[in-house]
Batch of 4 targets.
Target 1
Amino acid sequence: MNNYTRLLDPRTGEECGQAPIADEAQVNHAVTTAQQAFSNWRQSTAQERHDCLLALADEINTHAEQIADAEALNTGKTPEQVLEAEIPSAINELRFMAGALRAQTSPGAGEYVTGHFSYALREPVGVCVLIAPWNYPFAMAVSKLAPALAMGNTVVLKPAETTPLSAQLLVELCAKVLPAGVVNIVCGDRETGRALVRHPLPALVSITGSTVAGKQVASDAAATLKRLHLELGGKAPAMVFADADLELAAAGIAGSAFYNAGQDCTASCRVLVATSCYEHFVTLLLEQAKACELDPLNSPEQLARVEGFVKRLPGHAKVLCGGQVRAGRGFFYEPTVIVDVQQNDEVVQEEIFGPVITVQAFESEQQAVELANAVPFGLAASIWTRDLSRAQRLPGRIDAGTVWLNCHSVVAAEMPFGGVKGSGYGKDLSVLALDAYSRIKHVMSYAY
């Protein structure tokens, strides 16, 4: 058995590096190092942690091009894509969390029981295992790292097996501005991840990954009752009503569905369209799909997975465009639009994580809601309408942690992000992310 992973450039399919697969001793060393560093880091002041996060943001900004090159090599994105959106987002999250940690609220101190004085302490939980995904390796690592560090925790970061390059750079930058042992990295495969989750010392595991992976983590963490933060799969419905700006909707939905080859848990991959505008909207969507710039899938395994979904389509489903691997080098699958699907079809119910959109028609608002909710996931959704009443009424009826109105896949550091149902629990972003990485202690004193 090899003790390293071959890294492949998704654009060419060629080997671009190797990454070690940590064994049990190396996992134990990383966790123990984090535990030892925790005793001092937990006592740091809010201002000290604030300054460290801002310094890390500055380091990332200084080394942005180097990070973008590593991210592009590992994921198949262009450096420009990473520089334009993902690195600025990571820097913004660090700076937001730096401020948020100094503006936390808690129950007011006071005499709630006669003769007794109470106050609440917010404390770090301890060592946090952060398992990052391969679709946004750098941005998601920072999204987990920022609130964990802000609250005074130490961490062991495990990047995805196929995308460790930018995470390694991130940890090197952390070492410049943080005390030794506060941030550690362990590379490896699923067994490496399981060893981290099963280790008795970590207090929390945060993972962004598939629902299957989340269930396995929950099972492995149960023996030691670790706290869990699960940001899992999605099957986001985009509900297009007849009164919507159809051109805006087609462009927004296609942009979300096909960006990064559809490898996004919030991708607008499941389009629900009012019958009265169905034919026109599908035409607009096809125009957008055919004009999309093609990004590669992450690996040959992911390419085969996406291809398998389309090959297994039932006879009633119809592929209007795409539906095949692009000839040549790399792991490219053509942007695909499928119609005439039924709600129980695999392609509708399961997360594909590729550039594949299904389109279904609905007759009424009630049917649109029922179709939107009739999947195991509940991460995100969008509603496209000019009707203000509908825009106010429908979000509360949709099983999703985020509902966008006339847009899709837009996030803000100030607003929470996380799912329900099979999409997991816990919030990234916003001040609510700090809750996930902290614990509350009540202190009561008898007044003599």
Target 2
Amino acid sequence: MKFLRPVSGTRKIVQLIFFIIVLLVVIAHSLEEAGIVVPLIQGASLHAICPFGGVVTLYQFFSSGTFVQKIHESSLYLMLLVLVTAILAGPVFCGWACPFGTFQEWIAKIGRRIFGRKYNRMIPKSVDSLLRYLRYVVLVWVVIVTATSAKLVFSDYDPYYALFNFWTGEVGIGAFISLGMVIVLSLFVERPFCKYACPYGAVLGLSNLFRIFGLRRNTDTCISCNKCDKVCPMNLSIANKKIVRDHQCISCLECTSEAACPVDTTLELSTKKLGSRPTVEGGLVE
């Protein structure tokens, strides 16, 4: 059974749509606070449409039936929706819907123009592999501090919050510093926040270990061109794997046979094992 995969161009359109939706929501919220009501999207805020809010408020919700400050009930529903998609096909939210991931990819275009092939390959692998676990440290810190304080502490340092609220006067200096660091790092490394600091990416990344639709490589048809490795925004090693289970995969599908891989049905999002066709009496099944 195969999962129908959109091509790279479709992903960029979907990313742009989600970015615009989030931007409209936060602008409408700012206008509403100024007394101007925008039809259809009034009452929403950035916190209301953030699925990670559902994660950080879980402890308080189950212990007292209430939500962490600024978190809305909608965050819980969005968290469940994203969780279902992650169980099915991994961190689809990260690769297709997260507007901050999209923003980092836009900055990456500038970095590629400056550094060419060296872009996204500057940090030694030994250092990079260690840095990738920092986001789990961030996750543990955010969950513990939020649970004990009942406040959305991470917003004081969240570059995503700073990007979509920089004009409101509600953003702390820590968040602006984080946003500045992400912008600068994105000129050298693709999606640095996703790789090294995003707590929600840490949560969703675990779905790669048990997702139903896996990213699988057909060893019978693979020509070892390594194009899948070269286009991966997360610098994952794909060309030597039968199935990608790396916790950093964002299910962007840029490496698949409908995007970078030049051979049809060689790298696919599928539920079945690819390659090594079964034999009958010593011969390959035709």
Target 3
Amino acid sequence: MLNYIIRRILQIPLVLFVLSLIIVGLMQLLSPQQRAAAFVTSDKQIENLDLIIKKYHLDEGFLVQYKMWATQVLHGNLGFSRISKEPVTVTIRKRFPASVELALAAFVPIVLVGVFLGTVAAVNRDRFIDQALRVIAIIGWSLPTFVMAIWLVAWVYGGLGWFGIGRLPNEMLIDLATSNFHHYTGMYTIDGILNGRLDVTWQALIHLVLPATALVIVVSAGIMRVMRSSMLDELGKDYVRTARAKGLSENRVVYKHAWRNALIPVITMAGPMLGRMIGGIVVIELIFNFPGLGEWAAKAATQLDMTTLLAFVMLIGVIMATVNLLVDIAYVIVDPRIRYE
């Protein structure tokens, strides 16, 4: 198992190398002037694009430009983001915790709700509760995420005044900026506790409710459908019939024997889903004014900030490669029969 993990970790640089070749290659479709805009850090430099083109060899071939870009990245310089008006690495450090906080706040309920309802539906196959849950799952799965998000903002926040948008109330953000509040993790739910500011933690949790709810309603429907199908498949196998023939209770048959095996497809689906959520739920972050990576990347795309987009894609590559490795490890935990040589 350890050798397998080491091999997978060593594959991550190769994945990033291939990904960077593709992205930098696609950038060659832009003119040198368009690529030079990615290196502009002030309005004065716009008048001197030719100097930037010469400095970064943007009028030369792909290999020269890739070498220039890779050299900068290896020295920890991912470039300057025109969207955030600061170095890309600084923006990532600021926004990454926000996306992680939102992803975890939504991911845990998504999995718990989806697995629970999927199990209930499978155990009660073709009964009323199963039919009702299947209808709910179809509606949730068919409903666009942005529609649910807009409804929640309009009805719950706008109409009832409940919860909130953004990460914290504006007055609290001003207070934290002028106080001795330390950002240990960048996640307000945790930093509030570490700073002894439970009011910050409480407000952070309140502001996570609506975006997390929008994700849970839509995404958990997919988890539920996968869990129901997988559970039905396991309940029809010989080892389950044998367990029932031995006189084991139905709860023991379901949760002791079939349930763990049925989780394998759920883990396969949930792992990449978490990676994408950490990478940024673009629509959710935009609608709820949540300053995470997704909102940053969306604004960069609209303004053709190639430096930001390139760094964002590379970060997603690292996240997805890491998550896939964790998924493979989770397989072994859930089903000890699985072994990696």
Target 4
Amino acid sequence: MKSVVITGASTGIGFACSKHLLARGFRVFGSVRKQADADRLRSELGANFTPLLFDVTDEAAVKAAAEEVRAALAGEALAGLVNNAGIAVAGPVTELPIAQFRHQMEVNVIGPVIATQAFAPLLGADPAMKGERGRIVMVSSVAGRNGNPLLAPYSTSKHAIEGLSESLRRELMLFGIDVIVIAPGAVKTPIWAKADEVDLSPYQASPFFPALQRIRAFMLNLGKSGLPAETIAARVADALTLPAPKVRYEIAPDAMRQWIVRVLPKRTVDRIIAKRLGLMPATRP
């Protein structure tokens, strides 16, 4: 039985990946931050699912979980690490508290680095591990190649994941460990539903406030109209199992729009987005 570690397994893409891979015969180790989620997933997903209790930004906790997985593997190499855990922070760059921007980067960028360092030996960087070398799947986003106003922290983190993955893939060729990027568009996950919990009151006097309200509505709509998380899970499984996977898979419900955004001149796209969000400068007399 092949084994895989998935970060952020409690909901959304991580939960869907856990279910899908279990159905494909994998043993799944899934990270959660709360004991209640660990208990729930153990009950829902069955004996081949093992919860790992850690926050991806807690280096000591991640390393301890890696040792737990090493013991369970009993010398066999880990087949995959899915770096999925993430958050989405919104706000204007010029006004967003630095602590919030830093938290975005800690979770979405430093977290995957911590997990990769902890689990890479089990994927085969440690020559003592037996069997086929494992793979790393990095969950990025179409935002990894595009940038949306007022979602700069999230876009920045996903751009960083793209660069990290490109570099890491070439480094880990030394051990036969592949790195594959999965870049979804809008997906029906709680990460967007949580936009309703964002407190916009600190920005009420900001010139960005009307646009922030529109962005929140946009984020809430993503949580309702996006792709099913199961669609992404199926592609993650492909990345882990196909004999010759591509280095990057983009899965978006609006693929044509994504293509148009890329071929149009940047200034044209700037004006379209600004007009839609109300970010065009006021006409001066």
